[in-house]
Amino acid sequence: MKMTISLPAGGSRLSELIIGPGTLDELPREILTRLGRRRAFWVWDANVRELWGERLPALQLGGAEHSEPILFAASETNKRLSSVEELARRLVEAGADRNSVLVAVGGGVTGDVVGFLASVYMRGIPCHQVPTTLLAQVDSSVGGKTGVDLPEGKNLLGSFHQPEAVWMDPRFLETLPAVELRQGMAEVVKTAMIGDARLWDYLEGHHEAIRRRDPEAVSRIVTACCAFKASVVEADEKEGGYRRILNFGHTIGHALERLSGYRVRHGDAVAVGMAVSAELSRRLGRLPDEAAARLIKLCEAWDLPTRVPSGYDPAAIVAALRSDKKRMGDVLHFILPVRIGEAIDYENLDETLLRRTLTDLSA
C-alpha cells in the first residue's frame, strides 16, 4: 500500500506526504524531477547515515549527486540555535543560495532543526523531509512546525514552514530500537484518542503486527495519523484554535522533558501527560471511566509510563507550565479527552485540581 496525501500549505502550494513501502526507491528520481535546476543539500542524522547510507545506495547517490552530505549529531541537547547557525555556515561554505533545497534525513530533532534552518536561510528556502523514526513519520514531520529549544522551554524559537514533500517508508523502522518505536507509539495513541476511533480499534487488535514492524500495519497507522493531522492543519495551519487539539499530552509532557534535562524521552513524557489529562477529564466528569481505563491499558501494552516519575514535585511541574508556549496570556490550555476519538480544548483548569491529580498519579 502506498498513499499520497496533499496538504494545502499556504497560497497555492501543496505539501505532499508520500507514504508506503518502496517510497525510498523513487526518492532520488522524484527529487530530481521536482528540483529542476535547483541544487539539493542533504542533511543526515549521522546515525541514520551510518545505518542506511550503504543499504540505500539510491539515496547515497542522490546526496552525492547534488552536494556532499552534511552530517548532524541529532539529539535533544543539540536542538539549539547554535546548531542552526553551524549548519547555516556550512551551507554558505558549500554555495547554497536562494534556489537551493534542503533535504532532512532523520528523526524529529533533525526535521525540526533543518526545517527551521530552511525557514530562515536567505529568508526561506524549500525543504523536503525524509523521517526515519515512527515519531517523526506520524507527527513531527507533518504540518510545517519547526523549532529549537531554549533553556526555558521546548520549541520556544520556531516557525511554520511547510515542506514541499515528506517521504515515509516503513523500511526505516527495521533498524529502529524498540525504545524509539515506543516513543512513536505514544503519538499514535494520542492521535487515536483525540480524533480517530477506528485507528484506536485497529491499535487494540493489531498490537503484535505493529510490534514486529509489519510494513502493511505500519503503513496503515502512519497513513491514519498523517491523514488526521493533515485535516487538522488544513483547518488551522498556524494553531489559532483547533490545531491545539494535537497538544494532547504535550502540556505536562513538555514540562517533564524540560525538568528532567531531557532525560525523560518525548514519547514517555507525552504518555504521562495523556494519563494526567485523562484523569483530569475523568474527575471533571467529562471522560467515562471505561475510556480512561482503555487509554491506560493501551499505553501500558506499549510499555509507556502512565504515572509521574518519582522525584518530580507537582509544584515544579505547574511552575514549568507557565513558560509553555501553549499558554495564552494567563490562560493555559489543556486538551482533555471526552471519549475515544474526541477531545476538547479546556481553559482555566483549576490549579488545585491539577496539583492534586499530579500528586495522586506520582510514582
From TrEMBL:
Residues 72-182 form the 3-dehydroquinate synthase N-terminal domain. Binds 1 divalent metal cation per subunit. Can use either Co(2+) or Zn(2+). Residues 184-326 form the 3-dehydroquinate synthase C-terminal domain. NAD(+) binds at residues 108-112, 132-133, 145, 154, 172-175. Its main location: cytoplasm. It is an enzyme of class 4 (lyase). GO terms for biological process: amino acid biosynthetic process; aromatic amino acid family biosynthetic process; chorismate biosynthetic process. GO terms for cellular component: cytoplasm. Its cofactor is Zn(2+); Co(2+); NAD(+). InterPro entries: Dehydroquinate_synthase (IPR050071), DHQ_synth_AroB (IPR016037), DHQ_synth_fam (IPR030963), DHQS/DOIS_N (IPR030960), DHQS_C (IPR056179). Keywords: Amino-acid biosynthesis, Aromatic amino acid biosynthesis, Cobalt, Cytoplasm, Lyase, Metal-binding, NAD, Nucleotide-binding, Zinc. It catalyses: 7-phospho-2-dehydro-3-deoxy-D-arabino-heptonate = 3-dehydroquinate + phosphate. Pathway: Metabolic intermediate biosynthesis; chorismate biosynthesis; chorismate from D-erythrose 4-phosphate and phosphoenolpyruvate: step 2/7. It is found in: Cytoplasm. One of its GO terms (molecular function) is nucleotide binding. Zn(2+) binds at residues 187, 250, 266. HAMAP family: DHQ_synthase. Catalyzes the conversion of 3-deoxy-D-arabino-heptulosonate 7-phosphate (DAHP) to dehydroquinate (DHQ). NCBIfam families: aroB. This is 3-dehydroquinate synthase. It comes from Syntrophobacter fumaroxidans (strain DSM 10017 / MPOB).
